[in-house]
Design a protein that fits this description.
Blueprint: H1 21-27, E1 33-34, H2 111-118, E2 126-131, H3 139-148, H4 150-154, H5 161-181, E3 188-194, E4 201-208, E5 214-221, H6 230-235, H7 247-263, E6 270-271, E7 275-279, E8 284-292, E9 298-304, H8 312-318, H9 329-341, E10 345-354, E11 360-369, E12 373-382, E13 386-399, E14 403-412, E15 415-424, E16 432-444, E17 449-461, E18 471-485, H10 487-491, E19 497-503, E20 506-511, E21 522-536, E22 538-554, E23 559-571, E24 614-626, E25 629-641, E26 652-663, E27 666-675, E28 686-691
Parallel strand pairs: 1-7, 2-4, 5-8, 9-11
Antiparallel strand pairs: 3-4, 6-8, 7-8, 10-11, 12-13, 12-28, 13-14, 14-15, 15-16, 16-17, 17-18, 18-19, 18-20, 19-21, 20-21, 21-22, 22-23, 23-24, 24-25, 25-26, 26-27, 27-28
Helix pairs in contact: 3-5
Length: 695
């Protein structure tokens, strides 16, 4: 609480009302005491408006809209007349409504000004002007004034002179408080109503801030008990002697010190509100703040109130700290978020508890379970893919802790699938997921038809919206049996071929983007390699490799330029030997838009795609957002080759425009594309609908 320059024996709350949330959060904790010093001499106002000395012991009226006592506001140097200027309305809030500032014979304002003076009840629009602050303050000061100003609240609406006068008086007191918060205790503020020049009156403030008070000393009492960590903590409080008496800087430094205590082993530390003693004669201030460190602690044990959901051992496994590590409040918050990210709790509270030995702090965990079962569905459509309906049922804690069962079914015009998945989150460590899958699928596409049974397992580090990871990896194994038909099957004289495939897929991805579903800056780069053995008539092997990269560049507040490239190759064997479902294909909503699904590349005599051993794709789009909606013009290109290296001489190009609706859970995508250089049988227009950006 900062005191005024005249009343040095009063205590008052910090001069900001609660309606400015950003100011209250940042500035309310400050208190101050003023030394009983005499007011330094200053130039008196003009004799005709000399104010009597204020009674510093008299009770003060509440400031409108603030509700706290503030010293010296009633008789502060609020309004002083200024020299008349042609075109000015000489209305001063301090003068009675019937008093005229100009006597007969003086130069009179124009007719509009005279009308405004003579008819105090006439209502006109007005603007608010602050003169004298540009060289001293940035936009923060003006933004605060605009948020709290009575004049600013009434701008745009007509008001009479009496109303404007009252608002000028309120805002004069507000400006005085704002200036004091920045260390200007001797400010002079003069308000007046100027004649309209553009159809609006001007409520004008002429402000002389005066000298900015500086800190003579900064005393952080109690910090010495932190021992060898005292210097680190002192450096976390950047305010020092010689700095301005600036409430913003002091409160920011207080928060920085509180944070540093929590990050350096002091879970029970308390930081009292700052106290500033103002010496008006010297134009200095002394800052005192008392810190109770509460003693240095290291982490002890995890204590679980109800172990039916999580055991202490499991929670300790996903914590990023071990017993004996220096206590850090950020580690505790990170653990709380990790518990929430499991999806098994609706809320989690973690509280540091003294272990009782003077050295350790235990972490008490209290959680509220969330529903374990979920039923979800998805409906999509793509040209070339047709309609696709997917549904799943999930029990997220079927095998505690965090052992989930997922049953999934797909019914579409070209695909039918049923699968069962077991997933264990935080498997033997933080962020690791073990997955086992059994699925049966029937696929009927232009390129091939397949009836496939798959058994797979993988250990991976996944990313999610709560914890978007920079590095994501996966190591797995697959056993596949598939009965498939393609053009090569017909050429070989048989209708279908049966493949038995064993694979060891490995992937690694770096995500440097700023958002998982709607990236606006950064880049992503990932690679996947899968050595495979195929048993079909004879045994042969090959390696499937693929690299994906994308980059996102903001071009202003509403525009993002996004680009993507993808390359793939199969090393070893020939296209005819490789199972159709394991080849590369291009075309569709996640590939080259404007073309049908898997339609790009070499084709057989029936004009059906046959797939290939190499892949090249490129995409460029401009994402323009308007609130919750967006427009995305795009151009894609790609090709498939039967050789192990991609060819760029015969790229198929698609172009179009997309529309986005930005929901709370991610953008909903609706893209319409057309092929620029189509092959025979390609559609003129292709439509794609899905959740999330195309890449």
């Amino acid at each position: 609480m900062f005191h005024g320059p005249r009343s040095c024996r009063h205590r008052a709350c910090y001069p900001y009302p609660a309606r400015s949330f950003f100011m209250a959060a940042a500035l309310l904790p400050v208190t101050a005491l003023a030394q009983e010093q005499s007011q330094p001499p200053s130039a008196p106002p003009p004799a005709e408006v000399q104010q009597p000395a204020p009674d510093t012991e008299a009770p003060l009226a509440d400031e409108p809209g603030i509700g706290v006592d503030w010293p010296d506001m009633g008789q502060a140097d609020t309004i002083s007349p200024i020299a008349p200027e042609p075109g000015d309305v000489l209305e001063q809030p301090a003068a009675p409504a019937t008093e005229q500032a100009a006597s007969p014979g003086d130069d009179q304002p124009d007719a509009r000004a005279a009308g405004a003076q003579s008819d105090g009840m006439a209502e006109q629009r007005y603007t608010t002007v602050l003169n004298g602050l540009d060289a001293l303050f940035d936009d923060q000061f003006k933004n605060r004034f605009n948020e709290l100003s009575a004049l600013k609240q009434g701008e745009g609406k007509a008001a009479n002179v009496a109303q404007i006068n009252r608002r000028i008086k309120e805002d004069t007191a507000l400006l005085d408080r704002l200036l004091r918060a920045k260390g200007y205790y001797d400010a002079r503020i003069r308000g007046s109503i100027r004649a309209p020049t553009d159809g609006k009156l001007r409520a004008t403030f002429e402000i002389t801030p005066g000298t900015q008070y500086l800190l003579a000393s900064v005393d952080l009492t109690g910090l010495e008990t932190a021992g060898d960590r005292a210097e680190t903590l002192r450096n976390a409080f950047p305010v020092k002697a010689g700095d301005p008496v600036d409430a913003d800087n002091i409160v920011t430094a207080q928060g920085s010190l509180t944070h540093a205590l929590g990050e350096n082993g002091f879970p029970f530390a308390k930081v009292d509100d700052p106290v500033v003693r103002i010496d008006h004669e010297a134009r200095k201030g002394d800052l005192d703040m008392i810190i109770a460190t509460g003693g240095y602690r290291t982490f002890g044990q995890i204590v679980v109130k109800d172990a039916s959901l999580f055991s202490a051992k499991h929670i300790q496994r996903i914590a990023r700290f071990d017993p004996g590590d220096t206590y850090m409040a950020s580690d505790v918050e990170d653990l709380r978020k990790a518990i929430v990210a499991t999806g098994l709790v609706s809320s989690a509270t973690l509280t540091p508890k003294d272990a009782g030995d003077g050295q350790h702090v235990d972490v008490a965990v209290d959680v509220s379970p969330a529903p374990f079962r979920t039923i979800a569905g998805e409906l999509g459509y793509g040209t070339g893919e047709g309609v696709r309906v997917e549904g799943n049922w999930q029990h997220r804690n079927f095998f505690p802790p965090e052992g989930a069962i997922l049953l999934r079914g797909v019914l579409g015009t070209q695909e039918q699938l049923a699968s069962a998945t077991f997933r264990r989150n935080n498997f033997r460590g933080r962020d690791r997921v073990f997955t086992a899958l059994l699925s049966a699928a029937n696929t009927n596409r232009d390129a091939y038809a397949a009836r496939t049974l798959t058994l797979s397992a993988a250990l991976e580090r996944q990313t999610n919206i709560i914890f978007q990871k920079k590095w994501v990896w996966s190591v797995g194994a697959e056993l596949v049996t598939s009965d498939e038909r393609d053009s090569f099957s017909r050429i070989a004289g048989g209708g279908r071929r049966t493949f038995f495939i064993a694979a060891l897929p490995v992937s690694l991805t770096y995500d440097g983007s700023d958002d998982l579903l709607n990236p606006a800056k950064g880049f992503r780069l990932g690679g996947r390699i899968s050595p495979e053995l195929s048993f079909q008539n004879s045994t042969f092997g090959y390696v499937r490799a693929q690299v994906d990269g994308s980059v996102y560049q903001p071009m202003g507040d509403r525009i993002v330029l996004a680009a993507r490239a993808r390359f793939g190759s199969i090393l070893g064997s020939s296209v005819r030997q490789i199972a159709p479902s394991r080849r590369f294909y291009a075309g569709g909503g996640g590939s080259v838009r404007g073309y049908g699904y898997q339609d790009i590349g070499p084709r057989d005599v029936n004009n059906d795609p046959i797939g290939g051993k190499s892949l090249a794709e490129f995409s460029l789009e401009t994402r323009v957002r308007f609130g919750n909606f967006g427009v995305v013009p795009f151009i894609d290109a790609g090709n498939i080759s039967t050789q192990f290296l991609p060819h760029f001489s015969d790229l198929r190009i698609g172009a179009g425009v997309g529309f986005r609706y930005y929901s709370s859970f991610g953008p909903i995508r609706f893209d319409v594309g057309t092929p620029v250089n189509p092959q025979k049988g390609d559609p003129r227009v292709a439509v794609y609908v899905s959740l999330g950006q195309a890449f």
